[in-house]
Amino acid sequence: VMEKKFQQSNNNSYNYGFTSSAIWMRFQVKSQNSFLNDEWVFFVEYPQLDSVTFYFPVEQENGEEDIYIEKEGGDLFPFSKRDIESRVLTYTVPFEIKKNPIIYVRIQSTSVVHIPIYLSPQRIFHIKDNEPQIIFGVYFGIMFIMGLYNLFLFLSLKERIYLYYVLTVSFSILYMVSYHGYGFRYFWSESLYLQSKMIPLSELIATVCLNLFTIEFLETKKFIPIAHQVLRGLLILSAPVFLLCLILDTNTPVIILNIITLTYPFILITCGIIVLFKGNKSARLYLVGWGLAAIV
């Protein structure tokens, strides 16, 4: 790898889409005095990556060939292996690192290979790492209250539409918790299986529940029978995709799932607009909900 040609880039973030290939990166840090005066950490702000390995060169005497300290992280490794307890991937810079080091990084994943890499003093990293938790705490709190309120409505009125709403909110929260790394940090830290499956499965189930909610709320069978059959067809299609997500560890089910979830908003919003023009006034609230979701 060291002898291969690398393409120069000045970006901090890289996106290679879906690929089964391993991506190699290298960069040189020339401000060596900072490493001596402070504790530093590299962090990758995309916790869904399966495997991200840093190779730090160690200072050698008499010009001997470099020896590298290897630090692994990602979905394929227990949370306890992370140098710092954080929802993002963290790699502390070893004190033995050589002067003006050339650092190598290997990345491989079944998810989208998005690589936002940053270097920061640890004291600043801890401050920055805690800032999003306030925003996410407010967001999850609002979602939880909405779900709880509709659960009470379902228990009181026994109408399925409230159950579909509760399930949509619940699995949306689970997806967001998983996607942003909080699930692996706080709930299933040592379960690599749950970490690898939770994001696609929660996303798929949330989408299915939203589909059911849409059918019930917009009365698609009454107002748009053709679209109603399309939505039912998507529900049936979700079953084999669910099984593929459970069984396969490749990126194939993830790609299929992404296509489905990217198609859903267009279909559901179109249904809402058509139903509104056909006289179902409740479609206004449905479309407002999509507008608020787009803002968030």
What does this entry look like structurally?
The chain is of the alpha+beta class. Helices cover 54% and strands 16% of the residues. The protein contains nine helices and eight strands. The chain has helices at residues 32-37, 122-157, 160-179, 182-186, 192-218, 220-223, 225-247, 252-277, 282-295, and strands spanning 13-15, 23-28, 40-44, 51-58, 67-73, 89-92, 102-108, 114-121. A four-stranded antiparallel β-sheet has the order 1-8-3-6. The protein has a four-stranded antiparallel β-sheet with strand order 2-7-4-5, with no helix packed on it. A hairpin with an 8-residue loop joins β4 and β5. It is elongated. The chain starts with 12 loop residues before the first strand and ends with a helix. The model has no long low-confidence stretch (mean pLDDT 89).
Secondary structure: elements and pairs:
Blueprint: E1 13-15, E2 23-28, H1 32-37, E3 40-44, E4 51-58, E5 67-73, E6 89-92, E7 102-108, E8 114-121, H2 122-157, H3 160-179, H4 182-186, H5 192-218, H6 220-223, H7 225-247, H8 252-277, H9 282-295
Antiparallel strand pairs: 1-8, 2-7, 3-6, 3-8, 4-5, 4-7
Helix pairs in contact: 2-3, 3-5, 5-7, 5-8, 7-8, 8-9
